[in-house]
């Protein structure tokens, strides 16, 4: 059995290298270490006085595409692959927009209607919560 000192050494190495998983085989024993990526610590907002501006035109109407689960957002099917969609892309109903990994399962998030991508609201590899806005789309 691997001792606690070795396990701690591997855990520190994982953190230094930004790894989320590590498997070590030693004397016919396998130890697998896994961790979830640390979410960014929110900073308190700054209070800034902004002069009153003239009324802006209404924001372009759009549809939010929200995460149906808690997990990790992936914009592409693989690390070095092109993203599923980019801002300005026209998408068809049923087209894959992204992947949300939850409990080691890759869940494709698909367009529920034809539209155009106006905004991608999260970063690749970001942990998202249920209901988190992933995309803003314009209906076509």
Radius of gyration: 21 Å
Termini, distance in Å?
60 Å
List the secondary-structure elements in sequence, H or E. HEEEEEEEEEE
**What oligomeric assembly is this protein in?**
single chain
pLDDT averaged over residues: 82
Structural category is mainly beta
DSSP strand tally: 10
Number of helices: 1
Residue stretches low in confidence (pLDDT < 50, at least 5 long) are: none
The main pleated sheet reads as: 4 strands, antiparallel
Question: Which keywords apply here?
Answer:
140 residues, mainly beta, four-stranded antiparallel sheet, 1 helix, 10 strands
Give a verbal description of the structure.
- With 140 residues, the chain is mainly β.
- It has one helix and ten strands; from the N terminus they run αββββββββββ.
- It has a four-stranded antiparallel beta sheet with strand order 3-10-8-5, with no helix packed on it. Strands 7-6-4-9 form a four-stranded antiparallel beta sheet, with no helix packed on it.
- A hairpin with a 2-residue loop joins strand 1 (21-26) and strand 2 (29-34).
């Amino acid at each position: 059995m691997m001792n606690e000192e070795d396990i701690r050494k591997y855990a520190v190495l994982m953190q230094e290298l930004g790894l989320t998983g590590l498997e070590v085989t030693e004397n016919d024993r396998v130890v697998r270490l896994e961790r979830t990526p640390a979410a960014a610590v929110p900073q308190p907002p700054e209070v800034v006085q902004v002069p009153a501006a003239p009324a802006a035109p209404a924001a372009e109407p759009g549809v939010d595409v929200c995460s149906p689960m808690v997990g990790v957002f992936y914009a592409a099917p693989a690390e070095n692959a092109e993203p599923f969609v980019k801002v300005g892309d026209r998408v068809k109903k049923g087209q894959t927009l992204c992947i949300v990994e939850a409990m080691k399962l890759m869940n494709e998030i698909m367009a529920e209607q034809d539209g155009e991508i106006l905004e991608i609201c999260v970063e690749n590899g970001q942990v998202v919560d249920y209901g988190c806005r992933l995309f803003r789309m314009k209906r076509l």
